[in-house]
Specification:
alpha+beta; three-stranded antiparallel β-sheet; 5 strands; 22% strand; elongated; binds zinc ion
Protein backbone atom coordinates (compact mmCIF):
# COMPACT_ATOMS: atom_id res chain seq x y z
CA UNK A 1 0.00 0.00 0.00
CA UNK A 2 2.89 2.38 -0.72
CA UNK A 3 1.43 4.09 -3.75
CA UNK A 4 -1.71 6.09 -3.16
CA UNK A 5 -4.32 6.39 -5.84
CA UNK A 6 -4.97 10.08 -6.51
CA UNK A 7 -8.00 9.31 -8.65
CA UNK A 8 -9.83 8.03 -5.59
CA UNK A 9 -9.24 11.14 -3.52
CA UNK A 10 -11.81 13.69 -4.54
CA UNK A 11 -12.74 16.79 -2.68
CA UNK A 12 -16.48 17.17 -2.14
CA UNK A 13 -16.08 20.90 -2.79
CA UNK A 14 -15.58 20.18 -6.47
CA UNK A 15 -18.67 18.09 -6.70
CA UNK A 16 -21.73 20.38 -6.68
CA UNK A 17 -24.14 17.47 -7.01
CA UNK A 18 -23.07 16.39 -3.54
CA UNK A 19 -25.44 18.92 -2.04
CA UNK A 20 -28.35 17.29 -3.81
CA UNK A 21 -28.00 14.24 -1.62
CA UNK A 22 -29.57 16.07 1.29
CA UNK A 23 -33.22 16.05 0.43
CA UNK A 24 -36.10 17.39 2.42
CA UNK A 25 -38.06 14.57 3.98
CA UNK A 26 -41.02 13.78 1.85
CA UNK A 27 -44.48 12.94 3.02
CA UNK A 28 -44.58 9.70 4.93
CA UNK A 29 -45.98 6.71 3.11
CA UNK A 30 -47.29 3.86 5.17
CA UNK A 31 -45.14 0.77 4.93
CA UNK A 32 -46.10 -2.67 6.12
CA UNK A 33 -42.86 -3.05 8.06
CA UNK A 34 -43.73 -0.01 10.18
CA UNK A 35 -46.84 -1.69 11.59
CA UNK A 36 -46.73 -4.10 14.51
CA UNK A 37 -49.83 -6.08 15.41
CA UNK A 38 -50.85 -5.62 19.01
CA UNK A 39 -53.44 -7.43 21.17
CA UNK A 40 -55.41 -4.19 21.24
CA UNK A 41 -54.93 -3.19 17.61
CA UNK A 42 -51.92 -1.96 15.73
CA UNK A 43 -48.73 -0.14 16.63
CA UNK A 44 -47.30 2.29 14.13
CA UNK A 45 -43.54 2.83 14.41
CA UNK A 46 -42.61 5.87 12.38
CA UNK A 47 -39.21 5.72 10.69
CA UNK A 48 -36.61 8.33 11.56
CA UNK A 49 -37.58 11.72 10.20
CA UNK A 50 -41.29 11.60 11.00
CA UNK A 51 -43.44 12.35 14.00
CA UNK A 52 -47.09 12.64 14.93
CA UNK A 53 -48.47 16.11 14.38
CA UNK A 54 -50.70 16.21 17.45
CA UNK A 55 -48.18 14.51 19.67
CA UNK A 56 -44.90 16.13 18.72
CA UNK A 57 -41.78 14.23 19.57
CA UNK A 58 -43.78 11.01 19.52
CA UNK A 59 -42.79 8.41 16.95
CA UNK A 60 -44.73 5.38 18.07
CA UNK A 61 -48.46 5.14 18.56
CA UNK A 62 -51.11 2.51 19.02
CA UNK A 63 -54.37 2.37 17.10
CA UNK A 64 -57.51 0.31 17.59
CA UNK A 65 -58.12 -0.23 13.89
CA UNK A 66 -56.28 -0.02 10.60
CA UNK A 67 -58.73 2.67 9.53
CA UNK A 68 -57.65 4.91 12.40
CA UNK A 69 -54.02 4.17 11.64
CA UNK A 70 -54.43 5.02 7.97
CA UNK A 71 -56.36 8.19 8.74
CA UNK A 72 -53.60 9.31 11.08
CA UNK A 73 -50.93 8.58 8.47
CA UNK A 74 -52.86 10.56 5.89
CA UNK A 75 -53.53 13.61 8.02
CA UNK A 76 -51.22 13.77 10.98
CA UNK A 77 -47.71 12.54 10.23
CA UNK A 78 -45.21 15.34 9.69
CA UNK A 79 -41.45 15.57 9.19
CA UNK A 80 -39.39 15.45 12.36
CA UNK A 81 -35.87 16.65 13.02
CA UNK A 82 -35.50 15.87 16.71
CA UNK A 83 -32.12 14.69 17.89
CA UNK A 84 -33.22 11.06 17.85
CA UNK A 85 -34.24 11.30 14.22
CA UNK A 86 -31.08 13.13 13.26
CA UNK A 87 -28.98 10.52 15.00
CA UNK A 88 -30.72 7.66 13.25
ZN1 LIG B 1 -38.03 12.70 15.73
Amino acid sequence: MAASDPARVRSPRHNPTNQMKIQKPTRYKLRQQDIDPDPNGYILNLPAGYQFKYDTGCHVRGFDTMKELRDEVRTAVIPCSCKDCLAA
